[in-house]
Q: What sequence folds into this?
């Protein structure tokens, strides 16, 4: 398995990992703590705004980059600063516990304040839940170093979807979205059904429009649909919004509609090109033009989706690859995009 271009430095790829989860934690940190760590919330002084810090530190390997680092003021008999460190992990990793211990100590060395490290597991393996790192004396076998960290396993909420819907907490929708993609996996029909249901929940929630926009951005990133199901999703959502009179409905906030418009425009252009080619009777020119038009259209659409997903990670090199790729390759990269954790994953070939 290889990529179409050389790998980016490790710290750059790490910055791309789980970006939307980082974004949603930053925007909805208080609801997240209240829902997932209810014992912590009363001990945090929410009157003092929390700070989101850059979790990048020098190390012997170059740089260490933790996912999320918050600075909060805590009430525990006295007011003091505490750092809350979160790692978002989507799959098993053999040295994950060591990485948690390393981040924790690095943060402590820099700030000299208490650090609480927490792993947020997004995988679907109920048995994998590391929560400590330890070292034993090589001769006596005695345990001489042990580090514990907190964990949040999203899979543990499976079966509690109805209870989550009744929670007066907007972060419940984030967990419901993650559970939906874990259930649907690569089943496009089930993905579309779950995405439609979550969109209904969101636009009938009574939330402020700015909050709706941020949450939908997360849902749209998480539950990707292929072009065929994007079009069906658009029609289903528009129909449901009209029939059920969704109180906060505004298609401006549904970025999928913008993607569908591009797909439909591409299809219309291809159709017109075919008709024109038939009328002129220029079979060879029509075929060549149709193929070229399809390639350009698919490359343009994929570039648009890449920019939405990875923002400033899209380079001139990526754009050159898209321009040079044939339709089959572009189609494969489009499929890769639905599951990609980092931009290199999109350009993976097998």
A:
């Amino acid at each position: 398995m290889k990529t179409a271009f050389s790998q980016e430095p490790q710290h750059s790829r790490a910055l791309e990992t789980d970006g939307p989860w980082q974004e949603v934690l930053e925007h909805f940190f208080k609801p997240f703590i209240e829902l997932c760590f209810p014992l912590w919330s009363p001990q945090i002084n929410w009157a003092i705004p929390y700070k989101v810090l850059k979790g990048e530190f020098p190390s012997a390997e170059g740089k260490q980059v933790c996912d999320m680092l918050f600075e909060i003021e805590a009430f525990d008999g006295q007011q003091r600063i505490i750092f809350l460190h979160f790692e978002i992990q989507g799959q098993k990793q053999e040295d994950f516990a060591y990485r948690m211990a390393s981040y924790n100590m690095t943060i402590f060395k820099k700030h000299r304040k208490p650090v609480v490290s927490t792993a947020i597991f997004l995988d679907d393996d109920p048995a994998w839940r590391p929560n400590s790192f330890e070292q034993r004396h090589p001769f006596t076998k005695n345990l001489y170093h042990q580090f514990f960290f907190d964990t949040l396993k999203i899979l543990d909420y499976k079966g509690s979807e109805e209870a989550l819907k009744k929670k007066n907490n907007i972060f419940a929708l984030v967990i419901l979205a993650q559970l939906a993609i874990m259930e649907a996996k690569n089943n496009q029909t089930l993905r579309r059904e779950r995405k439609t249901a979550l969109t209904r929940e969101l636009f009938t929630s009574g939330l402020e429009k700015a909050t709706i926009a941020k949450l939908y951005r997360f849902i749209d990133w998480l539950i990707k649909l292929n072009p065929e199901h994007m079009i069906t999703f658009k029609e289903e959502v528009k129909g449901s919004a009209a029939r059920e009179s969704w109180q906060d409905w505004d298609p401006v906030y549904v970025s999928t509609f913008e993607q569908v418009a591009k797909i439909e425009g591409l299809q219309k252009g291809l159709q017109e090109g075919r008709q024109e080619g038939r009328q002129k009777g220029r079979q060879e020119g029509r075929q060549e033009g149709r193929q070229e038009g399809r390639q350009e259209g698919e490359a343009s659409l994929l570039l648009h989706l890449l920019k939405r997903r990875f923002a400033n990670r899209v380079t001139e090199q990526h754009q050159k690859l898209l321009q040079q790729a044939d339709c089959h390759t572009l189609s494969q990269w489009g499929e890769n995009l639905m599951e990609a954790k980092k931009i290199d994953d999109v350009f993976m070939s097998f």
Remarks:
- Residues 283-310 form the longest helix (28 residues).
- Residues 29-157 form one domain.
- The CA atoms of residues 186 and 262 lie 23 Å apart.
- Confidence is low (pLDDT under 50) at residues 1-17.
